[in-house]
Amino acid sequence: MNINDLISFNTFLFTTIDRKSSLNFAKQSENDLHLIPVLFQIEIDRSKSTSSPFIALDELDYYHDSDRHVLFTLNSIFRIVHIQRGEDKIQQINLILIDDNEDRLKNLKHSKQKQLNGFFSLGQMMMETNDLIKAKSIFEILLKNTTVSNQKELVSIHRKIGLIDQRMKDWTDALLHYKQCLNMQLSFLPPNDRFLGPSYAGVGAILMKLCNYDEALEYYQHAIDCGRNTSHVDSSLIATYYIGTGRILHLLGKNSEARKNFELALTFAQKSHTLLPEIEHYLTIIS
Hints:
Blueprint: E1 6-8, E2 13-16, H1 19-27, E3 38-43, E4 54-56, E5 69-72, E6 77-85, E7 91-97, H2 103-128, H3 132-144, H4 151-167, H5 171-186, H6 197-209, H7 213-228, H8 235-251, H9 255-268, H10 276-285
Parallel strand pairs: 3-7
Antiparallel strand pairs: 1-6, 2-5, 4-5, 6-7
Helix pairs in contact: 2-3, 3-4, 4-5, 5-6, 6-7, 6-8, 7-8, 8-9, 9-10
């Protein structure tokens, strides 16, 4: 570690402003040859905006009699401003909680985002060449390195892993990732948003593979509602929702209802020549 380096703690950071208490804690390891006792002294500039919230616990009623502890959130980022040998061979490192608008942090985040985007593109390329095991490994790395706050990125990653699992016929894992994708979207999108349609349909498709037909029908109906509840109707996409619904009804032996859905699919798919053969195939089967 050097002066001006950035440092982050990947856990909640529980601190105290009682220096004596901190020193006593650090001294517990001074006789261990495998450990270097370190005292972190943290400076906070309350006038600056920060992406790392903290709270003085003595301000809370149930911590009122505490030793004035301060709790920092996960992944708080600090800059090293000074390093010195303190008392009793304890190394003291002075830190300052950095402003989230600081250029260096912005550049660091931008660089990391470019790297993650590169990994995403690589994963997609692996999928296109049908190297699904490598593709899944890449997206799992992305999943571990994407923060919870980046919900939209996580949605895309879970969807890709779900699609890979689906292509590998791992229905259980595919269902897990498709549902995680959908639940995340529901946290920031309106209930009937058109962008939810593919996620509902993805869950429905896997439930159909698992022979959970009634629940699969519910998800496909949600997909249809989302697809039609917009001024920007994607006819081909809605056609696939009706095809999925028709297939389930056919498996349930409800051929009359299945035919109605395939006919609706045909109506929406008139401009999509790739879907017409599939629809006509099912209409022939149940006629």
